[in-house]
Amino acid sequence: MSKVSNRTKIASALVGALALASSNFVVADPLTDAQAAAGKLHTDAAKSQAQVDKYFDQAQDMLFEYSSVADQRESLKAYNDYLATLVADQENTMKGIQDDISGVDKLRQGVVPLMFKMVDNLEKFVALDLPFRAEDRKARVENLKKVLNTAEVTLAEKFRLILDAYAIERDYGNFVDVETGKLSLDGKEVLVDYFRLGRVALYAQSLDQKKAWMYNPETKAWDSLDDSYLRDITKGIRIARKQGAMDLFALPVPAAEAAK
User: Fold this and answer.
1) How far, CA to CA in Å, does 52 sit from each of 62, 65, 95?
2) Which stretch is the leader sequence (predicted)?
3) Which residue, 212, 233, 213, 231, is CA-closest to 222?
4) Which of 7, 110, 208, 258 meets the CB 3.0–4.6 Å disulfide criterion with 218?
């Protein structure tokens, strides 16, 4: 009885040991699966993170590219606005030029008659003025008449020549002058020095300095001067020729009414 019991106890112990070992094998399988699942999860998470990082980098690149394109767009817009302003200004300028061109004919209609009138008045003025440098002044007027009827000379050049002639006549009244020429007296020609005080008075003195005359605008003739004026006329001639120092001299002048 006791032997059986001992065998039974030994058998039971073996059965229990086998059962315990069996139970340990059973518990080990779910743990392995869990570890495998966790590893796979980590692997998938790493892949997902890699994808996220990839998409994030792509998004950053696209954002940078968008910002660059936006900046270029603003620059192009500003440049286009600038060009539009230039074009508008050029169009206004062209319109102004076109208006000026359209007004050329009207300008010609007004300027051409004016130029003819100016030359005509200049010719009358020279004829009525003191008879100094007569040949040069008359030749200048005749040249202006020819120029006005010449198609090869531009309108602007014609007008400039007329203004130059007026400027020369204006300057004649601003300084003294002397020139040598011939004076007709009683059918005879006498070599004289013509001495001019601007447009106030015109004198003539024989080259031997023994006789002198003054032009009378009222009678259009030459009046003989007293010998007492010979010295002053000589002094004035020397000053005009820059052969003497500036000095005072006394000479008669035509009456204001006559000079006018």
Assistant:
1) 15, 20, 63
2) 1-28
3) 213
4) 258
Distant-in-sequence, close-in-space partners of 119: CB < 8 Å, separation ≥ 6: 141, 144, 145, 148, 162
Q: Which helix (H) or strand (E) holds 90?
A: helix 2-102
Check whether 11 has a pLDDT greater than 60: no
Average pLDDT over residues 88-109: 76
**141 and 122 Cβ atoms separated by less than 8 Å:** yes
What 3-state DSSP class applies to 222?
strand
Name the residue among 233, 228, 168 with its Cα closest to residue 197.
Answer: 233
Confidence of residue 3 (pLDDT cuts 50, 70, 90): very low
Contact predicate 249/195, CB 8 Å? no
Nearest partner of 130 among 226, 38, 217, 37, judged by Cα? 217
